[in-house]
């Protein structure tokens, strides 16, 4: 299966609820009661158990569930020179809750003069592949990293090290290309770029988020599209690069809202990925009509099953929505998944592990019925 390409008809985004013993070990590590080697033993054990469950359920893609991370995106950034972080005092504003994830910021020029830690994380999962499964690696999209450093809350600090965005973007592109080279040499052929920037760019409050005037938002869209495509440009032919787009996922809370119409001409028509994993689990994502803008033979993974609630969706209602989406993009280019991960941050969403697996069983059941 190592030559198989994501996405599969039934798929998932990547993160899973952390087991109790892993949460306990991470707390003990933070308190200085165990060392990194002892923590890794627990992580390894939990990842092996997770992958066994993924295989048992019949999924063809395996991940480490992001079990070695605190968050879906920041740990990746911490692997670069020139980046530091500290516990947040305010968090990020999500609907109904503050997302208490570390403040992450520049302390120098960005560079990657060593192997990124995620490469070794990938090797561990790669070794667990079998004849029915393939490992994929998830990392934040380049646009997500750029946004972390240039949005209004961070821009003043970033200007201490970069007079303008051009040099910063060049350094980001170089760093990402090096990470991709390292992952490829480690055997990675399926890479996923997770990207919340597009969800923010369709939110009605986008001008406030970015401090942008009318017309400025389109320039931001162009900048984010450009950096993502620059990183993808020149990739090995047999490396699949997909992207996941969502509107925030923290402890079952969300950050932004808005239909895809406002970004379809940029993201769907022009981003040079192989497939889009898209959030479609509630009305915040709008209708399926923007899918008509998906160019070429790119695939779309419909995120119709929510990870934010334990309630199982009605199977027939989900099938009806797949049929509706197929009016805008051929059914053979569609797949099915949850709208996001189950634990984008280690706190996880508000459901149990048993409920998590029930969601994935439903995804598989529906997909096998639709794509017989």
Descriptive keywords:
TIM Barrel; two-stranded parallel sheet; 372 residues; 12 strands; 6-stranded parallel β-sheet
**Bulk shape:** globular
Annotated CATH architecture: Alpha-Beta Barrel
Q: Could you estimate the helical fraction of the residues in percent? A: 25-40%
Q: Give a count of the beta strands, DSSP E runs of length 2 or more.
A: 12
Instruction: Just give the CATH class.
Output: Alpha Beta
Q: Indicate the proportion of strand residues.
A: 15-25%
Placed side by side, the strands forming the largest sheet appear as 7-8-9-10-11-12
Report the end-to-end length measured between terminal Cα atoms. Answer: 21 Å
Poorly predicted parts: none
Largest sheet: 6 strands, parallel
Q: Give the ordered list of helices and strands.
A: HHEHEEEEHEEHHHEHHHEHEEHEH
Number of helices: 13
Residue-averaged pLDDT, rounded? Answer: 95
**Domains, number:** 1
CA radius of gyration: 19 Å
Enter the CATH topology name: TIM Barrel
């Amino acid at each position: 299966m190592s030559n198989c390409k994501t996405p599969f008809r039934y798929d998932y985004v990547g993160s899973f609820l952390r087991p109790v013993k892993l949460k306990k070990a991470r707390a003990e590590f933070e308190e200085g009661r165990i060392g990194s080697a002892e923590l890794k033993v627990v992580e390894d054990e939990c990842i092996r158990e997770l992958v066994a469950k993924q295989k048992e359920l019949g999924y063809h893609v395996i991940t480490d569930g992001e079990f070695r991370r605190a968050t879906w995106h920041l740990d990746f950034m911490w692997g670069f020179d020139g980046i530091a972080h500290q516990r947040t005092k305010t968090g990020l504003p999500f609907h109904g809750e503050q997302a208490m994830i570390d403040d992450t910021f520049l302390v120098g020029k960005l560079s990657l003069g060593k192997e990124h830690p995620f490469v070794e994380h990938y090797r561990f999962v790669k070794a667990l592949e079998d004849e029915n499964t393939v490992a994929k690696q998830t990392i934040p999209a380049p646009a997500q990293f750029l946004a972390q450093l240039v949005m209004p809350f961070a821009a003043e600090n970033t200007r201490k090290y970069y007079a303008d965005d051009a040099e910063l973007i060049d350094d980001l592109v170089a760093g990402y290309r090096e990470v991709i080279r390292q992952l490829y040499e480690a055997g990675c052929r399926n890479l996923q770029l997770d990207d919340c920037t597009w969800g923010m760019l369709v939110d009605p409050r986008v001008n406030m988020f970015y401090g942008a005037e009318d017309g400025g938002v389109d320039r931001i869209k162009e900048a984010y599209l450009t950096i993502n495509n620059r990183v993808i440009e020149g990739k090995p032919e047999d490396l699949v690069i997909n992207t996941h787009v969502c509107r925030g996922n923290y402890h079952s809370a969300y950050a932004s809202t808005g239909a895809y119409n406002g970004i379809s001409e940029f993201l769907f028509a022009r981003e040079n990925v192989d497939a889009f994993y898209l959030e479609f689990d509630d009305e915040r994502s709008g209708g399926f009509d923007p899918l008509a803008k998906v160019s070429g033979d790119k695939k779309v993974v419909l995120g119709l099953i929510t990870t934010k609630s334990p309630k199982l969706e009605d199977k027939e209602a989900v099938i009806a929505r797949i049929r509706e989406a197929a009016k805008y993009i051929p059914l053979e280019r569609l797949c099915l998944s949850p709208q996001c991960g189950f634990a984008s941050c280690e706190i996880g969403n508000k459901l149990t592990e048993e409920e998590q697996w029930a969601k994935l069983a439903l995804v598989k059941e529906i997909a096998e019925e639709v794509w017989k």
